[in-house]
Amino acid sequence: MLVAAAVCPCPPLLVPELAAGAAPELDALRAACLDAVAVAAAARPDRLVVVGPAAPPRDGRYPQGAVGSFRGFGVDLDVRLGRDGAAGARPLPLSLAVGAWLLERTGWAAAPVEGLAVAESLDTDDCLAAGRELAAGEDRVALLVTGDGSACRTLKAPGYLDDRAEPFDAATAAALGSADTAALAGVDQMLARELQAAGRAPWQVLAGAAEGAGLRGGLLYDGAPYGVGYHVAAWS
């Protein structure tokens, strides 16, 4: 059963070494992410699953100990999903690598960790089913859900300005802040794709996992510092 969830965005700039001189601009976002992870740890789960978007063939399961790297961004920095090694595991996609970095930053030791990368094109029903599968059974499960909102909030945003982006992000923030699983399940898949909202599929996995769990949510951060919607929420 799902006992807690932390919802965070996954921009590479969340990692200060990648942001360089711009690092202080995201200090409030980083602090909110660490607070959300702390809420998940306080629930004392039996296992934690990091869920994030990835393009095939990088989607699928990742075992504890899988390694991710930020070397492609010019920084000599590797991260590990949990503490133990997993020989031969494929490298983590970026969204799970950012999640692993957050866990390392908090010194996560509350429970074993595994990863699930979700294809951004995965249909809503399949996302919900994947979430239900994660939460099935009697063990206490927590999720760290990573994914960004729309990428169309300003003229300089990656997806340019789209007037639909701000209301889309506002509705998403409200749903995440109130742990409204029905609202998350109802996020329009086509609209999310047009607005380049990579978090849609992971949020709907969360919605499936949290069905009937009775969790309460709190919104810790909601902004678009680079024209991309970033939301941080904690469910417990």
UniProtKB/TrEMBL annotation:
This is Class III extradiol dioxygenase subunit B-like domain-containing protein. CDD domains: ED_3B_N_AMMECR1 (cd07951). It comes from the Bacteria. SUPFAM superfamilies: LigB-like (SSF53213). It comes from Streptomyces luteireticuli.
